[in-house]
Amino acid sequence: MIQPVLFKYANTLLKFFISLFAIQFLMIFIIPQPFSRVIIIAMIFLAYFERINLRHETKEIMLFWIYVSSALINMIIIRGDIILNNALITIANHTINESVWIKYMSIPSIMMYIIAAMGFAYTFKNHIWEFEVNRFENSTKDIKLNSQENKQLLVISLTVLFWAAESIHGINGTIVVIIGSMAMFVIGLLKIEDLKSINIHLLVFLTAAFSIGGVLKGSGVSDIIFLRFVPLFPEVFSTGYIAIIMITAASLHMILGSAVTTMSVVVPGLLIIASGQAGTEILMFIMYIMICSHFVLPFHNVILMIGNGNKHFRAELMLRYAPVLTGTVVFGIFIVYLNWWRLIGVL
User: Where does residue 321 rank: exposed (0-12), middle (13-18), buried (19+ CB within 10 A)?
Assistant: First the structure.
């Protein structure tokens, strides 16, 4: 059912970027869990890419952008990433509601998203040029659902609906998913052999990646590293001061990997060091942007790690895009975010 919409509204590169942004943003309100959300969206587009017969290399690059796009879009509102964004608020011990977050982050995050998309298109311009659908004119014909497929769609829709409405009915999301999965077995959508598709290696990889940062923090190694940056801070809040904050956050992020672990080390310490230099919101958001929108390898962002673990793209693509993304984040903080905060009178 979704594919005809994609054939109509995502049949050129520009339309793909716009459609993906719209779908990912709207899905925030349907599927609150960011990891499940990006997996579902990636699978929808993967089926679309296979339908239009994209070359493997082009398909891999487009899937890579889906995961990058998700990580950036999740910064626009608190509920974009209910895990990471709420972790920031908890770690900073500073209450922020959705309206305050939107005031500080929404417009500049959308602007940085556009810049990042342009940088992505430029980086991979030699491979994504073929993204046109005029070579498969008959792809959208005769797409109809039979009665069995309608039953399957109903079960999936009800599962997603009850999962999204957990805050209303109070039934734990895990229970909803278990019941939904059992119903899928009953109607034949899932079979016993489908259990083989559970990626045990990815689960082990995710567990290990999450643990590395925690071990470094628990052993005191991360605190020792952080203290090395303290003497570098100037006495007056300035461009140089902001640059040191960014370098500190980025450096620890490259070492620790986990964004939550990095924030748990960087945010409390820098808020104490920079106390009185600038507003708490300004300081915590600078660190948040530098940590959550900047990644070089899969273990630097869980969303990208999921995509890489599912073999949707290789880590080499991240390394290729990393210089452009780094420049985008630095430009975004100094030119987009800081000027936006000055414009609205909070800096």
Answer: buried
Altogether, the residues listed in the chain come to a count of 347
Runs of H (alpha helix) within 28-55: 34-51
Rounded CA separation 295/258 (Å): 10
Provide the H-helix boundaries in 165-232.
166-169, 173-186, 200-218, 221-227
**Torsion sign, CA atoms 94, 227, 273, 286:** negative
d(CA 33, CA 39): 10
With CA atoms as reference, report the closest residue to 306 among 44, 58, 37: 37
pLDDT digits (tens, 9 = 90+) for 195-251: 776 767 666 766 665 566 567 667 777 677 777 777 888 878 899 999 999 999 999
Nearest CA among 250, 82, 309, 111 for reference residue 173 = 82
Residues 152-167: tens digit of each pLDDT? 878 888 887 887 677 6
Q: How far apart are CA 20 and CA 22, in angstroms?
A: 5
Helix (H, G, I), strand (E, B) or coil at 30: coil
Per the CB < 8 A criterion, the answer to whether 197 and 236 are in contact is: no
Do 63 and 313 touch, CB atoms closer than 8 A?
yes
- 190 backbone dihedrals φ, ψ, rounded to 5°: -115, 150
CB 303 within 8 A of CB 34: yes
How far is 29 from 223, CA to CA, in rounded Å? Answer: 37
Q: Indicate left, alpha or beta for 314 from its phi (over 0: left) and psi (-120 to 50: alpha).
A: beta
User: Is residue 321 within 8 Å of residue 296, measured between CB atoms?
Assistant: no
State phi, psi for 92 to the nearest 5 degrees: -75, -15
Structure tokens belonging to residue 9: 């509204």
